[in-house]
Amino acid sequence: MKPVVTKGGSAGGAEIACDLARDMDEATLREINTTVVVFRRQNLSNERQIEFSRRFGELEVHIVKKYLLPGYPEILLISNIRDERGEHIGLADAGFTWHSDTSYRRRPSRCSLLYAKEVPQRGGQPLGDTVFANAIAAYEALPERMKKRLAGLKAIHRYSARRRVADSPRPKLTQAQLDETPDIAHPIVRTHPYTGRKSLYVTAGECVGIEGMPEDEAVDLIAELDTHCTRPEFLYRHKWQVGDLLMWDNTSSMHLAICNYALPERRLMHRTTVIGTVPV
Fold first, then answer.
1. End-to-end Cα, the chain, rounded Å
2. Residue 269 bridge partners (DSSP)
3. Which value, in Å, is the radius of gyration of the alpha carbons in the chain?
4. Can you spell out the DSSP letters for 67-98?
5. pTM score, two decimals?
6. CA–CA dist 75, 196 (Å, integer)
């Protein structure tokens, strides 16, 4: 059966009805150019998730090695579940602040794919929604004077500065991890490598400055743009179901995980991440 593509509204979401256990043709792959795509009711092995993800490029092995799935280093565990020693089996606070995956890399992520193995529920309703901000729509809505002001500016991204929730269970970065992730400057207005459309590529907290701009002025401008990107009209909120494979474009979006659940309400996700191009 040919996959059916249903595109959402201006926030850039789409749903593709198909069975990813079967190969997807190239024509359908080319249609996956929206901000967020969901494939419902999937039953994927670890091998199949990796195989499908690789069709979009080289896969990244996450810097936090503790939470890689044993035997499958391409898969990062996102989970609040604890083992018999009381330790988290995966990243328990992943995405609790607005960000774009691996923006601190020279070649940030092209896209991320998150597969829902367990979804927390309460009273029959799913918890732990993920919210996405369409950075293309946010850029296009800027006044012309702001677009001119931003042209050519580069924000400085710093992994160690990423905002964390209070009492984060995430292990502290080692010196080796800090050495692996030096500060990197990327254009605030990024041109999409496949569609050519422009988007905002800046996040408060992780972006600590702007090249050639006084620190206080830069921090204020970053905060203003971050707030602009997360206006309601640019947002898509995904309500999870077990079997969802959610794929999002990190070159043109930010996302935020809503933590409105706690054990014994369990959440378990498998994430793969595709390495992208150097932002221009």
1. 39
2. 78, 116
3. 18
4. GEETTEEEEEEEE--B-TTS-BSSBSSTT-S-
5. 0.88
6. 30
pLDDT digits (tens), the chain, 280 positions: 455 555 555 555 667 777 787 777 776 666 666 678 899 999 999 999 999 999 999 999 988 888 999 999 999 999 999 999 999 999 998 888 899 999 999 999 999 999 999 999 999 999 999 999 999 999 999 999 999 999 999 999 998 766 555 555 666 667 777 777 789 999 999 999 988 999 999 999 889 999 999 999 999 999 999 999 999 999 999 999 999 999 999 999 999 999 999 999 999 999 999 999 999 9
In the chain, where does DSSP find H-type helix?
26-31, 46-54, 135-140, 144-150, 175-180, 215-229
DSSP 19-42: -TTSPPPHHHHHH--SSEEEE-S-
- Across-strand partners of 157? 184, 207
Q: How far apart are CA 199 and CA 192, in angstroms?
A: 7
Contacts with 99 (C-beta within 8 Å, 6 or more apart), sequence order: 162, 203, 205, 206, 254, 255, 256
